[in-house]
Amino acid sequence: MGRVSRRAFAVAALSAFTMAPRASAAPDAPVAPTPPTSPVPAAGPPAGRAVTGMRGMWLATVANRDWPTRAGLRAGEQRAELVGLLDAAVRRGLNTVIFQVRPTADALWPSAHEPWSEYLSGSQGRDPGWDPLGTAVEEAHARGLELHAWFNPYRVATHDNPAHLVPSHPARKNPGWVVPYGGKLYYNPGLPEVRAFVQDAMMDAVEKYAVDGVHFDDYFYPYPVAGQSFADGGTYSTYGGDFATKAAWRRENIDLLVRETAARVKKIRPAARFGVSPFGVWRNAATDAKGSDTRAGVQTYDDLYADTRTWVREGWIDYIVPQLYWNVGLEAADYAKLIPWWAEVAKGSRTQLYIGEALYKAGDPAQPAAWQDPAELSRHLTLARQHPEVRGHVFFSAKEVAEDRIGAMARVSADHYGTPAGIARRQPRRPVGPAGRS
Question: Which ranges form a coiled coil (predicted)?
Fold first, then answer.
């Protein structure tokens, strides 16, 4: 998910300025979670509590963005920090935590397929001495929170040197799976064996833990890097014969990943939901009449090969959380225009619509004036209320939920979360047919 640091992730440019995925503008220095100031509620929502929509936060672990605050902390220190962030979610009136457990083809649980994450111990493959995902599920449920496991399917490393991976890493054992691009390493989404492997790696966690959801971020094919091409021409020659263009073949590769993952989640853990949080612009209206009134330099359909509109309309995913990380009135990507566009996309589908909110921008002096106003995010939720298709919001990210630099999160909680948080609202899952229609 483009959600960590300037050096780690690609920037998507708008016509006259930078328009980045959520993490590219996020500060690098970790901030310790705020100690809890109120008791933690009893496990689960009280009997009779009204069901609410999604009130979520992302908890990013790649490059130690939110947690742990640095690699190499003792197990007890890591656990205390994690529990502190869960407590912060409760204090803010949230009901869901989306926990990044596979940031770079690694694992925050004892995986049968991939090494322990370096973001825990400081060394890839080193056992941290405890089970972060298992603990997160247990502690979240004890607080009445849903815990969704967040996976990045294809990112292998935030560097481009395979020799820096542990020798047992699948990318070392299968070098033909890996494509260096933009200073990073990625698995090649066009290889059927890669698609099968990454699903096996992710489903290992879904089988072992009572997660409430499975979550993908905005990275499918990587964000474009000027002057570079993703070297999958040979793979296209082998597997792309039925497609007129490489772009169409790439989109089919990602469609297959999404549909196959949805089917496997349903089979393994029927109560869990499968959702995606894409970059907030599918296509500009200037590119496609069905697109949004935006002028984004990145379009998920054309640049990441993720046809997010189709996934919603065909009901392939249970929920979608477009990253609408722009302020009201922004000329190139106006939050107030994107909300009704996404609401219309979700209208009549089985896919629930939640909105990704850029809490990390609130009070950041590098951001435009709108983000210096603690009420900006509260206005977002007020606008979204005009559209019944919007069933909730997710905030990026946990560090800012706890720190709340200028009180923007407190303002949201006061204005919109006055009633206790129930469980995130669900709709019954319906089987997906051979054509992908529900």
Answer: none
